[in-house]
Amino acid sequence: MHDSVAVIGLGNMGAGIARTLAQTGRSVLGVDPAPEAAARVDDLLPVVDLDKAVADADVLVLSLPGSEQVEQLVDRLLEAEPGHRLVVDTSTSSPVSTRALEQRLTRHGHSLLDAPVSGGPAGAQSGSLTVFLGGRDDAVAEAEDVLAAIAQRVVHVGGPGAGNVAKLVNNLLCATQLQIAGEALRLAEAADIDPARVVEAVNGASGRSAVTEVNLPRWVLSETFDSGFPLGLMARDVALATETARSLGTPSPLADVVSAAWRDTRDRLGAAEDFNRMAQPERTQNR
């Protein structure tokens, strides 16, 4: 078992991951410049600066906004020139960037896994995340105990960058399904039919999905909109999926339309709003 782990980024996801790891008996350090970072981890672990984390922890678990911040972290790590470090990046990042960073780190004796997650803050806090894992087999074996502590399901999709491709595919599908589910709910309302009854019917038929079975009843029809995943991040992920498709020469005409719709909804409602508002019924949109 890796005894020393640093979690870099103590937002909604990183704080939950750090707390889960600390509760397994490991020595865990947190890194986040935000004044409220210590409160997010309830003093279960010390919050330190990045230099101390890189020097003291064998494993660096990243929970950062995106590729730019991950690239900056790798620059700092290479400047510090510590011994071998295992970097487990749970951020959702560009697969192209991930592959380049993995090569850089490997040349300097380190290992990198792209390990974006699904399951939200609740999954992070309970250690029940799903991990889309990309990386070399030796790095996967090295990270096994850390991943087992934070995740209920780990799927090794392929080599470096594959985890981020799989996560972007997942979020593209979820975003598309949520958008069309919202249109379906508004169709039901226009026909003067209770949307909840329509969802109940669909969930026993071929049109059902995780969105209709989970998102609609839990956050949309209940009007709670408190999943913990902001609309701005989903809009970013869908845009990143279309950018990745273009970089690989793969046409994605439907995804391009979906991305534009998410961008417009983000601009209209605000990036901090819950992503499930994409499917909110007409009556709540007009409030």
TrEMBL record:
Keywords: NAD, Oxidoreductase
UniProt superkingdom: Bacteria
Signal peptide per UniProt: none
PANTHER family, alphabetized: 3-HYDROXYISOBUTYRATE DEHYDROGENASE, MITOCHONDRIAL, 3-HYDROXYISOBUTYRATE DEHYDROGENASE-RELATED
Family note: Belongs to the HIBADH-related family.
Protein name in the entry: 3-hydroxyisobutyrate dehydrogenase
Active site: K167
Annotated 3-hydroxyisobutyrate dehydrogenase-like NAD-binding domain residues: 161-280
EC number: 1.1.1.31
Domain 6-phosphogluconate dehydrogenase NADP-binding, residue spans: 5-158
Name of the top EC class for this enzyme: oxidoreductase
GO terms assigned for molecular function: 3-hydroxyisobutyrate dehydrogenase activity; NAD binding; NADP binding
Pfam families reported in the protein's UniProt record: NAD_binding_11, NAD_binding_2
